[in-house]
């Protein structure tokens, strides 16, 4: 295994009152790779992301990001990460351009205006840049939100359901940007409901279910979890969706 | 570190000021009620009120300004509450910034916004007969007292904005503060009030702030009132600040 992963999570636990959301989560994310966290609604994906981005304290277990412990050195962790949360975190009263400039100034990057203009162009928002975000459509807001996370080239980026609410075209655009970022050495942890997204983007995939990672590996490794006979019968590779439903489905019946 | 704190607070201030300048209606809402009081007391009640003064507008002015500030700070609670509902707060908290800058941005905005309301009301006052013999130093002293009063109340607003569970709760806390000037020396001399009310009026913070501001504006000696006024503002401000910071720490894990 990688001796120096970008993200290392061991025995992570988190409960909200009686609700045991994470009961022991372990995974590593190699530097420069794309890691997808899959799980049903309420599985705890957002909880993992919030712990890793220092917004929430775990009850037990450890998590390090870029070599720094999220509980002991939160300020150091924040220096190496960027977060796009599940719900758009943009300032509605400012314009799109002002939102980007604000983040660029907070991250102290040189020439915030140029950075903002470049990102607006890159995310297809150049025409809307001078408009207040309150007038944006859901997809435009989401693109602005992702653009804000790209500022300052942080080595680790968390994307919580980045393409939810995007049309197919915008989704492909965002996928391409994520691939480019990973190609440039950025480590990306994304959560998604969209299994095709994990298939297309992720180097490694982990399925979070009932508080733990019940399966993880490359897409090829996950495929081996299914009985090979089935693969031959349908004469096609199982999609991740089938793998997901097969691994998760067993437990679902007991609910 | 301190240069970061300065930069971050500056960015937050700029953001929050845009919220104010893009909702000019909030400034109108904040100034309209104090202006209404000013006109009401000047032209309706003023004739019947025996305040031992030859210019009742001068007498009114300090209390009306305090009412304006007390209602102005409720917007700080409201804006802070909205920030917390919105994901933008979590984005800020996941970024390598000085965390206190998030609060200070709102607090400094409150100072600027209230200074604007105060200027508007003084302008209206001048039109209806407010006259002052205060020199530059006295004006600076008045500005200082009002700024300290704003600062103290703003930290109460921050505490309310952080602790409230509804937007109404985040601004409703200011109603009692808005009414404090009515039970003080702001509109009538306290000597005219019955025993217990008078005791309350003479010992609550607004009376000392009103009396010292009024004396400064009239070019009179302020005496010990000004120290009492500053003491109240500093005391309230420090207590509210401590509780606000504790509430903030609880909120951001
Ligand atoms: N602050 C909180 N207080 C109480 N319960 C919470 C809190 N945050 C999350 N939960 C609960 O924890 C569980 C996991 O939530 P989480 O948001 O991590 O799920 P998720 O996998 O991201 O789901 P989704 O796909 O719907 O976004 C849910 O049952 C949720 O209700
Ligand atoms: Mg989620």
UniProtKB/TrEMBL annotation, chain A:
It is found in: Cell membrane. Keywords: Antibiotic resistance, ATP-binding, Nucleotide-binding, Transport. GO terms for molecular function: ATP binding. Residues 7-235 form the ABC transporter domain. SMART domains: AAA. It is a peripheral membrane protein. Pfam families: ABC_tran (PF00005). Belongs to the ABC transporter superfamily. This is ATP-binding cassette domain-containing protein. It comes from Paractinoplanes ovalisporus.
From TrEMBL, chain B:
It comes from the Bacteria. It is found in: Cell membrane; Membrane. The chain crosses the membrane at residues 24-45, 57-81, 102-130, 136-160, 226-248. The keyword DNA-binding does not apply. Residues 25-251 form the ABC transmembrane type-2 domain. Pfam families: ABC2_membrane. Keywords: Antibiotic resistance, Cell membrane, Membrane, Transmembrane, Transmembrane helix, Transport. It is a multi-pass membrane protein. The keyword Methyltransferase does not apply. Belongs to the ABC-2 integral membrane protein family. This is Transport permease protein. It comes from Paractinoplanes ovalisporus. The lineage of its organism: Bacteria, Bacillati, Actinomycetota, Actinomycetes, Micromonosporales.
């Amino acid at each position: 295994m990688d001796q120096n992963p970008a993200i290392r999570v061991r025995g992570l636990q988190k409960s909200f009152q009686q609700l045991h959301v994470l009961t022991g989560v372990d995974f590593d994310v190699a530097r420069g790779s794309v890691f997808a966290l899959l799980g049903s609604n309420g599985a705890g994906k957002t909880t993992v992301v919030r712990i890793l981005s220092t917004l929430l304290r775990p009850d037990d277990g450890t998590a390090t990001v870029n070599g720094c412990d999220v509980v002991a050195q939160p300020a150091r962790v924040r220096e190496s990460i960027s977060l796009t949360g599940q719900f758009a975190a943009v300032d509605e009263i400012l314009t799109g351009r002002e939102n980007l400039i604000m983040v660029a100034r907070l991250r102290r990057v040189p020439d915030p205006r140029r950075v903002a203009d470049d990102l607006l162009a890159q995310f297809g928002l150049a025409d809307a840049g001078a408009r207040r975000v309150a007038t944006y459509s859901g997809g435009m807001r989401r693109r602005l939100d992702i653009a804000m996370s790209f500022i300052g080239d942080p080595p680790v980026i968390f994307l919580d359901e980045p393409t939810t609410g995007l049309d197919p075209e915008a989704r492909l655009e965002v996928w391409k940007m994520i691939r480019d970022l990973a190609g440039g050495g950025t480590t990306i942890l994304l959560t998604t409901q969209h299994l095709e997204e994990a298939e297309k983007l992720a180097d490694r995939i982990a399925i979070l279910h009932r508080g733990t990672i019940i399966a993880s590996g490359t897409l090829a490794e996950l495929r081996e979890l299914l009985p090979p006979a089935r693969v031959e019968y349908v004469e096609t590779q199982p999609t991740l969706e089938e793998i997901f439903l097969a691994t998760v489905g067993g437990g679902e019946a007991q609910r | 570190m301190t240069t970061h704190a300065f930069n971050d607070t500056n960015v937050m201030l700029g953001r929050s000021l845009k919220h104010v300048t893009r909702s000019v209606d909030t400034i109108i809402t904040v100034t309209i009620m104090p202006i209404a009081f000013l006109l009401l007391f000047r032209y309706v009640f003023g004739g019947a009120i025996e305040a031992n003064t030859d210019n009742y507008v001068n007498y009114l002015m300090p209390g009306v300004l305090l009412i304006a500030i007390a209602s102005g700070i409720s917007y700080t609670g409201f804006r802070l509450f909205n920030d917390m509902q919105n994901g933008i707060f979590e984005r800020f908290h996941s970024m390598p910034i000085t965390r206190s800058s998030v609060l200070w941005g709102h607090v400094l905005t409150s100072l600027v916004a209230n200074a604007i309301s105060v200027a508007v009301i003084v302008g209206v006052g001048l039109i209806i007969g407010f006259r002052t013999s205060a020199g530059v130093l006295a004006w600076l002293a008045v500005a200082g007292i009002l700024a300290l009063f704003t600062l103290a109340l703003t930290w109460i607003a921050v505490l309310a904005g952080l602790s409230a569970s509804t937007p109404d709760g985040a601004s409703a806390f200011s109603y009692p503060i808005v009414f404090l000037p009515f039970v003080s020396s702001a509109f009538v001399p306290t000597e005219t009030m019955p025993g217990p009310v008078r005791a309350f009026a003479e010992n609550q913070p607004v009376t000392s702030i009103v009396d010292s501001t009024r004396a400064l504006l009239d070019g009179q000696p302020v005496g010990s009132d000004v120290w009492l006024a500053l003491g109240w503002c500093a005391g309230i401000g420090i207590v509210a600040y401590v509780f606000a910071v504790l509430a903030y720490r609880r909120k951001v894990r």
